[in-house]
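wait is this the right file?? whatever heres the structure
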């Protein structure tokens, strides 16, 4: 029997695996288990589900042209605020990762103003895009916190 590998039965391998899982189950306490359960939900659609849901919630007042959860892209149609019909906005939100991180979110905005019977491109203030990103990130954190708590 020299030169042969020892053979393990399926039962002994399963018992060893269960013993290893038992040893690890005490690590981190119940908070860690809840956090991991909430974090496991992030990749069911290809991107971070909290960022995805928060983006849809934040842009819910605008008509959508495209919402691709696998690619993580949301594109709105032009939207005019009824209080300022001479201006319209269009947004594109890209979710770039499965992690809930600030750099996993990119927002782009286009703005047009009515001029001479048509629409003319106008600059968008950087603060507008930053504010929208902050709103989405805050909402995503809130959704995750609610998932962890209960």
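ok assuming it is, sequence goes like this
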């Amino acid at each position: 029997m020299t030169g042969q590998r020892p053979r393990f039965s399926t039962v002994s391998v399963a018992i060893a695996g269960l013993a290893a899982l038992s040893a690890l189950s005490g690590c981190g306490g119940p908070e860690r288990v809840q956090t991991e359960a909430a974090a496991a939900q992030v990749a069911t659609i290809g991107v971070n589900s909290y960022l995805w849901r928060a983006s849809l919630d934040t842009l819910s007042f605008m008509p959508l042209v495209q919402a691709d959860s696998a690619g993580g892209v949301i594109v709105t149609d032009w939207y005019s605020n009824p209080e300022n019909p001479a201006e319209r906005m269009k947004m594109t939100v890209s979710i770039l990762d499965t992690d809930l991180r600030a750099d996993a979110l990119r927002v782009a905005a286009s703005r047009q103003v009515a001029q001479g019977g048509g629409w003319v491109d106008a600059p968008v203030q950087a603060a507008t895009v930053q504010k929208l990103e902050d709103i989405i990130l805050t909402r995503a954190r809130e959704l995750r916190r609610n998932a962890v708590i209960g």
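Helices lie at 10-25, 29-40, 49-58, 126-149. so i think its the right one actually
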